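Board notes (copied after class):
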Amino acid sequence: MPEMLEVEMFRRVAERAVGRTIERVEAPDAWFLKGGIGPADVRAALDGATIRGTDRIGKLLLVAVGDDRPELGLRFGMTGRLVLGEHDPVGQLEYSSGRDDPAWDRFALRLDDGGRLRLSDPRRLGGVELDPDREALGPDAWSVTGAQLRRALAGSEAPLKARLLDQARLAGLGNLLVDETLWRARLDPRRPAGSLGAAELRRLRSRIASTVDDLFAKGGSHRGHLQEHRVRGGRCPRCGGELDRTTVGGRTTYWCPSCVRPAEA
C-alpha cells in the first residue's frame, strides 16, 4: 500500500518528466476525477502545458505546470502506482496484485517525447484533483518538528495510532509506518495521544525520523522489522514475545505489550 515513502518514490519518477510538454491527457475513468471536475476540465487545464516541477505533502503528489494553470494533485489510495515508461519504482505494492493490467490505468499524461506518465490503481481508491487544498493536510511527517508533533497530539483523547494516521494532523504516515514507528519507540498504540510526556514526544519524533529514513533506504514502508511478523500468532522480533493483534482507529494493529515502556508519570 502506498504510504509517504512510496509517494516520494512516485514523485521522483514524475520529476523525470519535468520540462516535457503534455500532448494529451487520458482520463478514461471519470469517477477517478475528484472535486467536481470531469475529463474535459483536466484536458483544458493540462493539454499543451509544460511540466515545471513536482512536490509532495504526505501522501499527496503535486505536479506543477506552466502558464498559470492549475496544479495537478495525485492520490494513490491503497493500490495506486505511478509509472513512466520503464520507470516503475515500486513494481508490486504490499497487499496488492502483481499484475499490471492496462484496464487499471485510471489517468495518464501523454508526453511530447512519446513517454506516458500513468496512474494505475486496481481498486480505484486514489484520485486526481486540480489545485488540491494543501492547507487541509498537517505537516509532512518526514520533516515534522518536535513543536509540530506536540501540537498534533496535544489534548487529544484519541488513541495515539489513530491520531498519527489523521492526515489533517500529520501527513504521510500509514498503517505500516505507524506500527513500525510505535514498536521502535516502545509506545502503546492505544493510549491517549495527548498523554505523552516531553521525553516520550522527543522519542516518538526521533523514531518517526529514523524509521522513515531507514525504510526509504530499504525500499518502502513494508521493509520494517515488524513486517514479516504481522500475522496471527506472530512473535516480536526484538523480545520474542507474542505480538498483540487488535484494531486501533479502524486499522489492524500489531504491537508488543512486553516491549512497551511504562507511561511517564
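Comment from the instructor: The CA atoms of residues 86 and 153 lie 41 Å apart. Residues 4-135 form a domain with the N-terminal domain of MutM-like DNA repair proteins fold (CATH 3.20.190.10).
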